[in-house]
Amino acid sequence: MKWTQLPLGPLQTNAYVLQNDANEAIVIDPGGDGQAFIQWLTSQQLKPLAVLLTHAHFDHIGAVDDVRNEFNCPVYLHKNELDWLADPNKNGSSRFMGNHAITVKPADNIIEKEDTITIGSFSFKVYETPGHSPGSVSFYLKEEAVVFSGDALFAQSIGRTDLPGGDHQLLLTSIHKKLLELPEETVVACGHGPTTTIGNEMDGNPFLSGF
């Protein structure tokens, strides 16, 4: 299995595409540039089986319907943000995108709790990591030693908590109780910017000291 990071959309949010040897794929957080992203998937001869969302802010969902409609694949989202997809005020697009507010059709599958999601040959452990937003989750692939953290944890930074539903203390708790409990060699595939590792963030992230 391999995975690819693709910055998409107005904020160059990192989308991730995981693929197996059969060219089946999982798409995480397709943030925008829908047609160009579909062209890339097609050029790679990939067949997306599902779209997983770490959360429902506008910069993570802009190409959701493009991918879902093109490949007829279901969308997964945590229950705490189900109504955000269709609400530009909640997903933030009305504030940050002006006349280009984003609305997306409802999710097909609801993440109710921490659990394991298996889709074809792909198996993810879901961790609830709220704080940046109420329904933020992280997807962990133990065999690949990678966690897709959305906007919870970044290289030398953490997610902002000044948006609706944000909670700084809750975010720190999520990071320490969930993400930092993972093996130190685990790659953190962040929602923005470069990848890092759990060990690097334990040792050097200035936002995590003194918790």
UniProtKB/TrEMBL annotation:
<dbReference type="Pfam" id="PF00753">
    <property type="entry name" value="Lactamase_B"/>
</dbReference>
<keyword id="KW-0378">Hydrolase</keyword>
<dbReference type="GO" id="GO:0046872">
    <property type="term" value="F:metal ion binding"/>
</dbReference>
<protein>
    <recommendedName>
        <fullName>Metallo-beta-lactamase domain-containing protein</fullName>
    </recommendedName>
</protein>
<dbReference type="InterPro" id="IPR001279">
    <property type="entry name" value="Metallo-B-lactamas"/>
</dbReference>
<dbReference type="GO" id="GO:0016787">
    <property type="term" value="F:hydrolase activity"/>
</dbReference>
<keyword id="KW-0862">Zinc</keyword>
<feature type="domain" description="Metallo-beta-lactamase">
    <location>
        <begin position="12"/>
        <end position="192"/>
    </location>
</feature>
<dbReference type="InterPro" id="IPR051453">
    <property type="entry name" value="MBL_Glyoxalase_II"/>
</dbReference>
<keyword id="KW-0479">Metal-binding</keyword>
<dbReference type="InterPro" id="IPR036866">
    <property type="entry name" value="RibonucZ/Hydroxyglut_hydro"/>
</dbReference>
